[in-house]
# Entry
Amino acid sequence: MRNLTAARAAEMIRFTYLFFLAGKSAWNRRGTLLLVVLSIALSTTLLLGLERVRTQVRESFVQAVSGVDLVVGARGGDMQLMLYAVFHLGGATNNMSWKSALSIAARPDVAWSVPISLGDSHNGYPVVGTSADFFTRYRFRGGRELQLAQGGSFSDLFDVVTGSEVAKKHGYVPGSRIILSHGNSGAQLARHEDKPFVVSGVLRPTGTPVDRSLYISLEAMEAIHLNWQGGAPIRGLEIRPDQVRKFNLEPKSITALLVGMKSRSRVFALQQDIRNWKEEALTGVMPGVAMDQIWRLVSTGEQALFLVSGLVIFTGLAGLASAILAGLGERRRELAILRSAGARPLDILILLACEGFLLLCAGMACGLLLLVLLLLALGPTLADSYGIALHVSPPGTGELLLLGGIAAAGFLTCLIPAWRAYRLSLADGLTAST
# Structure
């Protein structure tokens, strides 16, 4: 037993010495190997950066609206309802009546409701008619609230609140005057020239469709269409902005209704009641379920990012193996001297494998450091410009798995030149070939 323990201790000492020797050998050739470390560092940074961006984009997509228990609209496909109610893409085949919206909002199990009315645009950006509750009830990315960067919510009939992207592109600030267009195309053939709006506030970036939208009150949506019929203004009928307040501006229909429940256990009961709604054909969609379905349809970009990431790290590891293999020819005399000093062929294999693994670890460490520096430098810019919040934080589960995969793949890659050195040491014996 003592002999076995002593043998194990000797092997540990031998391995430690080989590990130290591998480090010294790599340091002596640091000028040549620096490019290898840099390549692995850049590969690691790109891989982890893509993973973090991919995760954030997916989170922003799936959690474009949170805290909403049910989205109610006219009968149709679940994904179609989510696309036009939340992302403002496409158009509703039909609207739901305002009477039904009030009836749903008045139910004892409903805590709050926010109406959504679509149909107009501004320079290609959707205009959303809603209530002031939208700015206090809407949540995104795990419960974050909307915040105004400038100004305030609409208080006058012809006030408009713009998303961050709209304001940035057109230079809008509180007090700017804008003209809305009828319809959701960017052609601007039918403009509400007679009823201009004034920007009352600009929202902070959210990374959601809110950034690319403009918000007015439901009453304002009705007011600009008082003298319109069939998608065009009625000839000879002019209603000035100072006259519209004399009319009944209560909407007759809306596009969708965002609903929050007092108890989430009642969601399924309300969903069933909406399916059986007697007054009109309605449907209720739970956002989380519909968002997952939509993401599965548009996740081609996510798969492409995975492919790019794999190719990047493969290139870095191939460079590592190539650099060590390329130096073997010059190091055969060195390896032969080690053999003459008592090193076994297995020791040569361990030496080369340790050397490659040390380079891999150094590259990964530099890559993590570079990623942190990039997040500190570019994080605020990405958050302000695109709403992508990339904070400095410990690696998540996905990133740890990727790092483990890089380490495992790198170790296997290092065995290629190590095995080559092992075979050369067997062939050369005590004499180095030239």
Q: What stands out?
A: The first helix runs from residue 2 to 28. The CA atoms of residues 162 and 214 lie 4 Å apart. DSSP finds twelve helices and 17 strands in the chain. The first strand starts at residue 70 and ends at 74.
